[in-house]
Design goal:
alpha/beta, 4 helices
Length: about 100
């Protein structure tokens, strides 16, 4: 059984998933990816990672929508979530 931390990377841009996944894998993290919010929530229902890296801007469920659902579920309410965005950093910190 591996003791490496599990990271769920959620982004609708495959290149971003690859970049983050490769960087984390080199550091020894076990990376799982989801290409949208719905897929991320399905994966969270099966296995809870140690942290979620979550894109803010995605079609369908936004990163904010996904984060709200993560926080609403007692099983994942305390799960660390890092919001990733290319939007205005100051305003997005407030929204996050």
């Amino acid at each position: 059984m591996s003791t490496a931390a599990k990271v769920l990377v959620v982004d609708d841009t495959p290149l971003n998933i690859k970049l983050l996944g490769d960087l984390l894998a080199v550091k020894g993290y076990r990376v799982t990816a989801a290409v949208n919010g719905e897929e991320a929530l399905k994966k969270l229902a099966v296995e809870i990672p140690d942290i979620v890296l979550l894109d803010v801007m995605m079609p369908g469920l936004s990163g904010y929508d996904v984060c709200k659902r993560i926080r609403a579920d007692p099983a994942t309410a305390l799960l660390p979530v890092v919001m990733i965005t290319s939007l205005d950093p100051q305003q997005e910190r407030v929204n996050g």
